[in-house]
Amino acid sequence: xxxxxxxxxxxxxxxxxxxxxxxxxxxxxxxxxxxxxxxxxxxxxxxxxxxxxxxxxxxxxxxxxxxxxxxxxxxxxxxxxxxxxxxxxxxxxxxxxxxxxxxxxxxxxxxxxxxxxxxxxxxxxxxxxxxxxxxxxxxxxxxxxxxxxxxxxxxxxxxxxxxxxxxxxxxxxxxxxxxxxxxxxxxxxxxxxxxxxxxxxxxxxxxxxxxxxxxxxxxxxxxxxxxxxxxxxxxxxxxxxxxxxxxxxxxxxxxxxxxxxxxxxxxxxxxxxxxxxxxxxxxxxxxxxxxxxxxxxxxxxxxxxxxxxxxxxxxxxxxxxxxxxxxxxxxxxxxxxxxxxxxxxxxxxxxxxxxxxxxxxxxxxxxxxxxxxxxxxxxxxxxxxxxxxxxxxxxxxxxxxxxxxxxxxxxxxxxxxxxxxxxxxxxx
Length: 428
Known about the structure:
Layout: H1 2-57, H2 74-178, E1 193-198, E2 201-206, H3 207-213, E3 216-220, H4 225-241, E4 247-253, H5 258-270, E5 275-284, H6 286-292, E6 299-301, E7 306-309, H7 320-345, H8 349-355, E8 360-362, H9 364-370, E9 375-379, E10 389-390, H10 408-413
Parallel strand pairs: 3-4, 4-5, 5-6, 5-7, 6-9
Antiparallel strand pairs: 1-2, 7-8, 9-10
Protein name: ATP-dependent Clp protease proteolytic subunit
Keywords: Hydrolase, Membrane, Protease, Serine protease, Transmembrane, Transmembrane helix
InterPro entries: ClpP, ClpP/crotonase-like_dom_sf, ClpP/TepA, ClpP_His_AS, ClpP_Ser_AS
């Protein structure tokens, strides 16, 4: 942009110089015209003076030069005529002085002076004409040069505009292709680009768009409204392509906004496609709810992932009535989430309520026993095999026991600020 601004300034300056040069040309042309008029007037005066001198002689020698009129042609004839005319003028002036005496001498002096002055005026006018013509020529050269400069600068500016437009289009296209992945869903500043060979040549995809072609959706990072919008859009798109093919959802999320997570959950339940969920890294809070919301028998976790469930959290401020409204709303959300977990895990609602009282971290095996996932995978099936390799339970391993059952009345009567200890002990 700086280069374009500099080019525009240069173009403006060049245009000013061109205008000034045109003014100089116009002034020079006026001077030339005036000088030509002066030259013509001076020549008329000189000729008039000569005619006066000749007429004073009385025409005695008026025809003496005619004898030479046909003596030759071309330049020689002209030179002879000029010499004869000059002789006639000189003789006429001598005759005037002889006839009129002192008065004739004065008259001749006056006429000669007028002729000399007229000739000087003619010479000066001719010099002015020559100088004016030189100025005109120089001005025209300057104008032509400046026109060339202006055309060149216009070409440069147009080229710069084209380059800047091309760069903006490229950046816009790159932003459009990556806009989905520059939100909170994918925090990595570098998105790999995959280049594929097709029948129409090469085609480039960012890695997430390429995975979407394989019906794979990645839920990475905190879940908020923007992430929910992207995931919902991808789910609806894959359903529009086929409503019976499996959709694979890979989850690595610490949780997030409850309403955003429930929006994704409702869409998962709304579409007809079977959804296979996969936990990589962690699935905590709303992430674990989405993990459990996959189609039964198609919920997976990798062996070193962590799953965590807990009750919703939040805060409120304002008037007492407003705080009570917020507290009632979050209690409704808590009961609603408990029912969702109970539906997808097969656990009793009382068991879910007890586990959800505090953060409950689980290994993949514990989450499998709890009913959040169905299988723990080591790697997908090898070529020629039908089943993937699964993580087997250690002999004698018992499923995690839920924390002691707590009656709702006891919980509600607990003093404010009481911190009930979690029964979960983290694994070494």
